[in-house]
Amino acid sequence: MKYAYLVSSIESTHNHFQQYSVKAVNISLTIRNWLIGLYIIEFEQGGEDRAAYGSGLLDSLAKELKIKGLVAAELSRCRQFYNSYPQILGSLTQEFKQLLPSTILGSLPQDLTNQSVSSKKLIEKLSYTHFIELIKIEDPLKRTFYEMECISVFYWSLIKIMHW
Fold this sequence. Notes:
Layout: H1 3-46, H2 50-53, H3 57-65, H4 72-84, H5 94-97, H6 102-107, H7 110-113, H8 117-125, H9 128-134, H10 140-162
Helix pairs in contact: 1-4, 3-4
């Protein structure tokens, strides 16, 4: 083995697994934020003590949780994320579905619990930052257009990197 080949092999291995790690972290962060949105919505719709919190629920949660980055505004985005993409539930692996209390999982419509190729592709190809921008688009047709554009840009970027 030549020295240059050794260096190249180590660098390409490092780059491959670094990209894999970034993707795994992004998917986990996206699903975490979606689940947080789900929990908040479920609490608001059926929580017994929700009246005690009223409009201050997100502020109270942010103070109680003490998780860096989960301020009231971010919790609100999580809630909006879930409302905009309820179909993501269908793309969750069994591992993530186990995080849902059976009372929540049992109360969700069946069509949301089925596997969804398109939502799985969205989670794999788009970052949570993409979703934050996409949830601002109220028209579902327009949002779908921009989702497809984001995925298309992702694929073209990948092709450019592969041919570099």
